[in-house]
Amino acid sequence: LLASKSSSSSGGAQKGNRSVSDTKDSKVYYVGQSNGWKLVKDSLDRRGWQQLPFEYQFSTRFGLKWVERRSQIDYRSHIPGQLVCHIPNNDCICTKVGLLATLRE
Fold first, then answer.
1. N or C of the chain: less Cβ packing under 10 Å?
2. Which residues are within 8 A (CB) of 83 and not within 5 positions of it... i.e. 6 or more apart?
3. pLDDT digits over 48-79, tens only?
4. Residue 7 has pLDDT above 50, yes or no
């Protein structure tokens, strides 16, 4: 785990011209404890990714964040190159009603 590498849960990545691929955080992931999280963890661990501890839920030091709800992702602090498992405002295409309304517009 990466708990020993950082004393702050706010993370070390900074905005600006940097992207997450420019940092050591590109192979670091955070997964929330819900909805089959162990499957995601096992898959990423096999691929050499390192998991942030569960208490780092507000950290920006990740290449991938896998959580249950969009509200658990701070899109304002998003750094280019970071992957998240939810797209903001995706209900306009990801629900039947939203897709139908979007296609009618």
1. C
2. 63, 64, 65
3. 999 999 999 999 999 999 999 888 999 899 89
4. no
- Please state the separation of Cα 95 from the chain's center in Å: 22
In Å, how far from its chain's centre is CA 47? Answer: 17
pLDDT digits (tens, 9 = 90+) for 12-25: 444 444 455 554 66
Interacting residues of 77 by C-beta distance below 8 A, sequence separation 6+: 15, 60
Strands 28-31 and 64-66: parallel
Which sign, positive or negative, has the C-alpha torsion 46, 50, 53, 56?
A: negative
CA–CA separation, 62 and 97 (whole Å): 33
Q: How far apart are CA 51 and CA 45, in angstroms?
A: 8
Do the beta carbons of residue 55 and residue 61 sit within 8 Å? no
